[in-house]
Amino acid sequence: MDTHASDIVDYYTRHYREDQRLTGRPQARLEWIRTMQLLRDLLPDPGARVLDIGGGTGEYARALVVAGYDVRLVDLVPSHVAQAGDGHPPVDARVADARALPDADDTYDAALLLGPLYHLVRRADRLQALREAARVTRPGGLVVAAAISRFAGPLDAAATGRLDERLLDEARALLSDGVNDPRLGFTHAYFHRVEEITDECSAVGLTDIVVHGVEGPAWTAAEAAANGPARDAVFAAAVDLARVYSSEPALIAASSHLLAAGRVPAP
Fold it and tell me: How much is the pTM?
């Protein structure tokens, strides 16, 4: 395991509760609602085999199991795998690196990469993870990969009243390199532009690629309204607009997360 991977395992083991992430602030709840809506729209019918790569503590995998999918989860963090396996319902889970999956070729109808890409700072590593996802997915099957938008952090800071000179400097730096500074929060991470995630999916041979903005253009309004009297109305509007503008090119990058979907080509 390389140094960055070890740091990520340490971060999620000692410093961050991944199992509580999707139930807190408006952005996280929007991420959950919209990701599930998109998966319902994109995935084949229940009964299909799905590999959830970097699936964390199993929130998405567990929801798919309940919906009738045959799901296996792999994650780099042993404590995540333990939580996924101990949940209700339990998820078939094992420890693995997204860049070197233990599964055979053409095993799954769909593969999800909802976490790994933004923890892989080097393009070569992101491409390797995407190649592995494509390798274990049958021809004609679907690969769905999440990325964090290049603009998510600064937009979040502005919406929540935390944007200061230090974070403005970071926003300027991110425009050129996309690499998160762990000293400012989070851990080692890479933040994508829409054209980058599209290019990376294309580079590994995926076809029919569509990129969606997950939380939509009004997620910052939901964050800003979180403690005000209009919070429920603003949140509901943010969900509606996220669905309406899901793949609108002019607005995709305004989302906090991007979701790219592409097909494994037939021989």
Answer: 0.94
